[in-house]
Amino acid sequence: MGVPPPDIEIAVKHGMQKMQYTPDSLTPRERYKLLAGFVLPRPIAWVTTVGPTGVVNAAPFSFFNVFSEDPPLCMFSANPGPDGLLKDTVVNIQRTGEFVVNLADEPLARAMHDSSGDFPPDIGEPDYLGLKLAPSTKVAVPRLADAPWAMECKIWKTIDMDGGRQLIMGEGINFYIRDELWDATSMRVHMERYHPVGRMFADRYCRTDDRIVFPPAEGAAGA
Questions:
Q1: Rounded Cα gap, residues 22 and 29, in angstroms
Q2: Which terminal residue of the chain, N or C, has fewer Cβ atoms less than 10 Å from its own Cβ?
């Protein structure tokens, strides 16, 4: 049996009975496994971009979320590929300043997962996987026609994490919603019809149909 890391040994001595780490006690890969293994489920940005020869790229990123409604901002991050080079998605966005965030539901889940494989720049995932494209309105990048929801984005800000991971923030400038999923009068989604998938870790995903509804929170009595 190996010697426990110092952080774990200290925790046991103080009766905390909980593992703990400092970032510098872990390799980057171990940090990734720690974060991706516990911060879940995560929404998935299925990002479409256009390459220099017109090839449409579609790649999923689960370090993703929306962060603001005024302006509508989203952010996803992309680490380098296995070869250490920037991924096609990042290169395309840096060149054009545009992308589309598509969301995947259960019927599209396998294709979304398969699009995370290694594809050379001259082979577009939508074409290879038989995914239909539709033109966007305000950007040159097409959206995935069958996605339940899509947001056309312009670059708002990017952050280069020391030449490695790239943080890409986009401003949503147009939205698409599959008609049967949205009540335009109440401005609410028909949740019984919407079946998005979430990312767990590695090759694991989750469905989102097992839902909990609580009554409105009342806060402190007499406040």
A1: 14
A2: N
| β-pair type (133-134, 143-144) | antiparallel
3-state SS of 43-98? CCEEEEEECCCCCEEEEEECCEEEEEECCEEEEEEECCCCCCCCCHHHHHHHHHCE
State yes or no: cis peptide before 82, omega within 30 of 0.
no
* Residue 14 one-letter amino acid: H
For residues 198 and 43, the answer to whether their CB atoms sit within 8 Å is yes
Distance, in Å, from the CA atom of 151 to the CA atom of 84, rounded to the nearest integer, reads 29
Q: State in Å, rounded, how far the first CA of the chain is from the last one.
A: 55
Chain position carrying tokens 């370090």: 63
CA 65, 52, 160 angle in degrees (round to 5)? 40
Q: What would the pLDDT profile of 156-211 be if each residue is shown by its tens digit?
A: 999 998 778 899 999 999 999 999 999 999 999 999 999 999 999 999 999 999 99
> What is the DSSP pairing of strand 72-78 with strand 182-183?
unpaired
| Angstrom distances, CA of residue 168 to CA of 46, 48, 165, 223 | 14, 14, 10, 41
Please list the helix, strand and coil fractions of the chain in percent, rounded to the nearest 5, in that order. 20, 30, 45
Q: Are 141 and 81 in contact (CB under 8 A)?
A: no
Q: Which residues contact 43 (CB under 8 A, 6 or more apart)?
A: 62, 64, 65, 103, 196, 198, 199
Q: State the DSSP string of 167-207.
A: EEEEEEEEEEE-GGGEETTTTEE-TTT--BEEE-STT-EEE
